Amino acid sequence: MLNKPVLVESLVVFVIVLFVHAVVWDRYSWCAVALAVQAFYVQFKWDRLLQLGGAVFQFRTAANSGLLPASMVIPLLGIAMKERCKSAGIVYFERFGIVVASTGMLVALFLSVIAVGITKPVPTNTCILTGVAGSVIIYTMKHSLTVSEVIEVLEVLLIFVYLSMILLYLLPRCFTPGEALLVLGGISFVLNQLIKRSLNVVEGRGDPIDFFLLVAVVGVILLGLFFTVLFIFMDSGTWISSMFFHMMTAVLGLGVIMPWLYRLIQRNPLFWLLQFLFETQTRVYLLVYWTFLAASACGVVFYQNAKRSSESKKHQASTITRKYFHFIVVATYIPGLIYDRQLLYVAAVLCLAVFIFLEYIRYFRIKPFGQTLRQLLSLFLDERDSGPLILTHIYLLLGMSLPVWLFPRSCAPKGTLSGAGALVPYSGVLAVGVGDTVASIFGSTMGEIKWPGTKKTFEGTMTAIFAQIIAVALILIFDSSVNLNSSYARILASVSLVSLLEAYTTQIDNLLLPLYLQIMFM
């Protein structure tokens, strides 16, 4: 039987699904509900497989499978995008939203079939539920998608299968099944989009910053796969290997990634980037300010490590210490969201590439900084960093950036949405930067009443909701582009549901919470 936290987490997700489809109920709503019901039951099987060690790969053990909350993210994002673009009359992105929703459903269904298939004895009732859900989804796809769209969905599924086999083998204990679904599903979709757009380049069509995101994400992932295979045959910790690492990074960057980006944007990528970054005086001020904040974050790392060396009993940073970085990230994103969202978009992409590249240096022990990074970052590890990679800081950046990257600019009049949708780019700031931070600090210092079955406290959740409402009021004051149109009840309901999900989920909240808040705002 499922334990109480999983039941409450599942109940919150079901409420969110119904919350979204209360706005519009159509054929995709039946698919979403069917997917949610079967994912709830398959969660039983994944949790049992993880407890008995019967899963094909090694997953993160300090959490449940998280299949239900992860399964609903991509389909709900696609459905929300479809409705927004349909109301704006943008047919291309309306169809794109349908493809996203269909892809998310099929990938989640595939992961469910895997769990059912390797469970012994065969769970008859769950098999029937999965079959019914699959039939509803495939029937709807048959009557909704064109042939080219079906091929695109199957391409993403194929990429997901191969990426899962490779990365879950190479990175044991880094993900739960739900986290793997979200991360690898997202990477698969990005890779497919990049291939599709590279084969159909039309001069003047497409925003260069979107191409920059696609190439940067795929580039750093391919770079990691290349060096992982390479260092199977040689010791990565030697000076010769380190020199080869830096040389091949330059070769792949200048010889593959830069020409790829040049083909897409039809101009020199370096010149375009420099011109973009320094185009206005506001951007220069923001870059100087962000450089100061980055230096401050480095200062916190060095100070905490110096403090640890002088206090031999202290081995790990406290929760409050780790939340310093949440405050720094909030201070980084708020000015960017108010003054220049395009600059924030590109800067977040650059920051993600740098974070992943530094993690490669730490993981492979590349000289001269690999061992130093290992020592500095070991202080900030928590139970979620149980695998060979340290991913929590990357998840924090993704949680703050995804609402900015996934904001449907083409379907938003004058670059903004009305009502609760105007807060979509702020979803990461509200859910992670404000809500999660305040809940952790107040819950760990003043919380006394614990939510049943968890370590989270009632006081932490309530203060998180209150803090996010205050943050929304401040956004209204300082950002003139935000117009809520009396959508206060919807905002309060969205914030409350996501805060309750934070109290009960054992998944990476930095990644999951902003996406759910964005879905409900959209």
TrEMBL record:
Family, similarity comment: Belongs to the polyprenol kinase family.
Protein name stated in the entry: dolichol kinase
UniProt entry tagged with the keyword Transferase: yes
EC numbers: 2.7.1.108
Keywords: Endoplasmic reticulum, Kinase, Membrane, Transferase, Transmembrane, Transmembrane helix
Membrane disposition: Multi-pass membrane protein
Keyword flag Endoplasmic reticulum: yes
Any GO MF annotation of the entry: dolichol kinase activity
Gene Ontology BP, a term: dolichyl monophosphate biosynthetic process
Localisation per UniProt entry: Endoplasmic reticulum membrane
GO cellular component terms, A-Z: endoplasmic reticulum membrane
Transmembrane annotation, as ranges: 12-41, 61-80, 92-116, 153-171, 211-232, 244-262, 282-303, 324-339, 345-365, 386-406, 426-446, 458-478
